[in-house]
Amino acid sequence: MKSFMYVLTALCVIGLAFWAYRENYATQAVLNTTDRLHSEIRSAHARLAVLRAEWAFQNRPERLRDLTELNFERLQLLPLNPEQFGQVDEVQYPAPDLLLITNSVEVSTMNAEDPL
């Protein structure tokens, strides 16, 4: 009986060692994936910062003003004036479509004395 318990204990230790070995490698794989994703996120943030800086550089008011002056013949862009803006109550909204009834419906009234 003692030898059976020793064998059973040894098998349990081997099984637990195998389980711990597999969990260790699975954890390392997840950590590597997480590190890779973090580096991708960092590079995406860096690219986004560069794109924002380029956008700000391209949209400088003096640059846009110079471009509109150079291309005035073709584009005919003028500066905006406050008179060009309207009020909300001046907006003409389209009238809602009317519901067209194509089939006639017969309506009858029921009296309290009429049986169902």
Task: Provide an overview of this structure.
- It comes from Sulfitobacter undariae.
- This is Cell division protein FtsL.
- There is one protein chain.
- The chain is an all-alpha fold.
- The protein has a domain at 2-76.
- It has three helices and no strands.
- It has helices at 2-58, 61-70, 72-75.
- The model has no long low-confidence stretch (mean pLDDT 89).
- Strand pairing plus helix content: what structural class? mainly alpha
> Major sheet, described briefly?
none
Distance between the termini: 86 Å
Task: Please bin the fraction of helical residues.
Answer: 55-70%
The beta-strand count equals 0
Give the H and E element order. HHH
* Strand coverage percent: under 5%
Q: Gyration radius, to the nearest Å? A: 39 Å
Sequence stretches where pLDDT stays below 50 over 5 or more residues: none
Q: Let me know the average pLDDT.
A: 89
Broad shape: flat
Query: Total number of helical segments?
Result: 3
Give structural attributes.
single chain, 116 residues, mainly alpha, 0% strand
Q: What's the arrangement of secondary structure elements?
A:
Elements: H1 2-58, H2 61-70, H3 72-75
